[in-house]
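Illustration 12: RNA polymerase subunit sigma-70.
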Amino acid sequence: MSLKQLIINCSKNDTKAQSELYQLFSSKLFSICLKYSKNYAEAEDNLQDAFLTIFNKISQYDNKGSFEGWLKRITINTALQRYRNQGVFEIINEELIEDVELDIEDDDLTIDFLLNIIQELPDRYRLVFNLYALDGYSHSEIAEMLNISLGTSKSNLARARKLLIEKIEIFKASLNSQSL
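Figure caption equivalent — predicted structure in token form:
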């Protein structure tokens, strides 16, 4: 069945088509959920909620642009909505700290390690970091999505990078002490 037909059938609440769509995209969307969640269980909840929204709104997809991109936006917005509802983005000191470059080109750093330390970031930092560094949104887009100021977006990104660098340095130091 073509993707176009699958979308049409899903819009008619065809459970077989919905199951097929889920099978096609759940692993890609789950990886997005992992980036925006504190842990695996929360990522599973976000994926479930995202698919509920996808199936409820699939008839609104107008075949303009990438269907996968449409799914990705819904998934990210679903995860972000959880944090908006929790008041994660209450304004704190917005003072811009010096931005630092994050260099993760290191053979000792696995994807699992990097995902783990990103998930350990405070919510406001993790979400801005993911939106900016991993998904390519601009600070103005992030500010609008999260209902925060441009300065808060920039500050949260800088703080996220600083925390990640500290965690990477601690990890590398522990590797060096083990090899002595």
